[in-house]
Amino acid sequence: MASGVEQRVFSAMNDLLTRYQSIKLAVSADTARSHKDTTISTAEDINSLASMWLLHTKRRWNRTTPIHRLPTEILVFTFRFSTPTEVFEPITEEFEHPWPGATTIYYDNLLALCGVSSDWARIVRNTPSFWVYVSSGDHPKLIDLALKRSQKSPLWIHYFVESSRKGNKRLHKYLQTTLKESHRWHTLVPDIEDGRFNFDSTLKQFSTSRFPSLARMLVSGSSATVPNLFPLGCPAPKYIEVKSTYLEWGNYQLSNLETFRLFDLTKRPALSFSQLLDILKASPSLATFEVTYVHISDVHPDSIFGPMPTLPALHFLKLSRVKPSEAIRLLLPLVDGG
User: Fold this and answer.
1) Residue 276 vs residues 134, 149, 245: alpha-carbon distances, Å
2) Rounded to the nearest 10 degrees, how much is the dihedral formed by the CA atoms of 157, 162, 163, 164?
3) How far apart are CA 290 and CA 37, in angstroms?
4) Distance between CA 236 and CA 224 in Å, rounded?
5) Which of 19, 62, 127, 250 yields a CA-CA distance of 20 to 30 A from 146?
6) Cβ neighbours for 160, distance < 8 A, ≥ 6 positions apart
7) pLDDT at res. 38
8) What pTM does this model have?
């Protein structure tokens, strides 16, 4: 709420603007006809100057209010709460991958802050971490702007995979742009909308890139089988989450893996029991292991060659609705091992 003094100041300024605007209306028709080029121009100039003066005065007044005296760090922290990013982050097993336009809405909210004051606009423009979310569903100009303003910050990369010619063309152009910054990719969120998509052209684009900073992969889809996307610049991610999509596991480096989550893979076996054990053995730093609604093939004691993997860092284990249930019994020693 504005104080009585503030209300009187703004009332006086608005009254002054109203009086200046009335000059234009007070010009008689006869005077307007005889002095068309000078009188009306003068009235419009006065009106324009009055508007500029009012805007300048309001800006100066705004700079004296408490919120504009806050440190930049506090404002940045506050802005993050006004432009929530929960849709981009894996929080629970109910996590849904971003819908088309999610990043556009995020940036609309972010740019709305720029309209409050020039100081806020400067802070938004010059905070690289605000501009790290890049999706193939965004307008190309917004993608270019985000890549530019994010500077050297790690990127959150999201793209839709469709089988349509238009979708394929859009994805190709998007990857062509974002792969120039592949060294900054931190979180990869591919959304496989159509399992009939031909990945050959995508693999060619990936094959010449490196992904040294890629730490998280969140793959979602429609029961598609996704080949290894990193034939040369193969990363060693810390976080892998797969939902309704079948990956070819043989070529991923898992030595840095800390979180491994599989969801909703029941239409056919997601992987064999021996493959699952190989993943666990290759992940000595694994801390979170979650398997929910997953079909595992070749589950029997003979699948276990040698000792069970030991996971000294494991602190969260969830095995729910795993098919067949024998897999849960065979994985229970992980509890003792962790």
Assistant:
1) 32, 41, 16
2) -110
3) 77
4) 23
5) 62
6) 100, 136, 137, 167, 171, 191, 193
7) 44
8) 0.75
Residue 333 to residues 286, 307, 310, 316: CA-CA distances in angstroms? 15, 10, 9, 14
Q: Say what the pLDDT of residue 14 is.
A: 62
Please give the pLDDT value at position 338.
42
- DSSP structural state of residue 233: B
Quick one: which H or E segment has residue 243? strand 239-247
Question: What's the token pair of residue 236?
Answer: 């060693």
| CA atoms of 132 and 149, how far apart (whole Å) | 8
Consecutive H or E run containing 155? strand 155-161
Residues 6+ away with beta carbon under 8 Å from 270: 242, 246, 262, 294, 295, 296
Can you give the pLDDT at residue 152?
95
pLDDT the model gives residue 30: 45
Segment 43-78, tens digit of pLDDT: 566 666 667 767 666 666 666 666 667 788 888 888
Cα gap 67→152, rounded to integer Å: 29
Q: What is the residue type of 41?
A: S
Buried b vs exposed e over 196-213: b needs ≥16 C-beta within 10 Å?
Answer: ebebeebeebbeebebee
pLDDT at 194: 63
- The per-residue pLDDT for 196 is 58
- Contacts (Cβ under 8 Å, ≥6 apart) of 337: 308, 309, 310, 311, 312, 314
Residue 278 near residue 306 (C-beta atoms within 8 A)? no
Low-confidence stretches of the chain (pLDDT < 50) are: 1, 5, 9, 23-24, 26-40, 91-94, 338
